[in-house]
Amino acid sequence: MTISVLLVDDEPLTRAGLRAILEAQEGITVVGEASDGVSVVGEVRRLRPDVIAMDVRMPLMDGIEATRTVLRAVPEPPKILIITTFENDDYVYEALRAGADGFLLKRARPVEIANAVRTVAQGDSVLYPAAVRLLAAGRRSDSARAILDRADLTQREVAVLRLMTKGLSNAEIAADLYVGSETVKTHVSSILAKFGARDRTQAVIVAYESGFV
Fold this sequence. Notes:
It comes from Nocardia speluncae. Residues 146-211 form the HTH luxR-type domain. Keywords: DNA-binding, Phosphoprotein, Transcription, Transcription regulation. The chain is α/β, with parallel strands linked by helices. It is 53% helix and 13% strand. Strands 2-1-3-4-5 form a 5-stranded parallel sheet, sandwiched between helices. Helix 3 (63-73) runs parallel beside helix 4 (90-98), helix 9 (170-177) crosses helix 10 and helix 10 (181-195) crosses helix 11 (200-209). The protein starts with a strand and ends with a helix. The model has no long low-confidence stretch (mean pLDDT 91).
């Protein structure tokens, strides 16, 4: 199945570069572009992309507010991949908290960019564990701790969550725990339900802010 992508960045050169990279990949097509966050919802409703690749810093409306707006206004919203220059940008962390599915460095190699799009399209997250750990430092939250306590995770769910915080995909977690991918998918779904999290990225944020890791 072809993955459709909407590019959102205020720099025309960046959009052109991403378009060239993605359209050279089999199974990925760029269906549209936008130069700011204000027009994202309209373009999503018109084009129905599978993935939005969106800059975090833009005029008029940044990637954080654009992420919130899309998730609030669009039924069955697309996956959102934040594009950033610096992995330790506080804007990135806030975008993840707002509901983005991961982030991508602008200096990433073409194969990494394509893999990131495929990964979020499949329902996994794209995280750089060291960067998220650094960004989460000192952001302890009583509400996140309460979520973790109420969740009462099983021993296997604890193991799965710990590997999720390391940025592993379902297939990689399955290999690490010597179980099937469907078993991991079941555990991940259970963790998300217990946390009340939209996706695995949100679950990882709870894990860091609660002090789980």
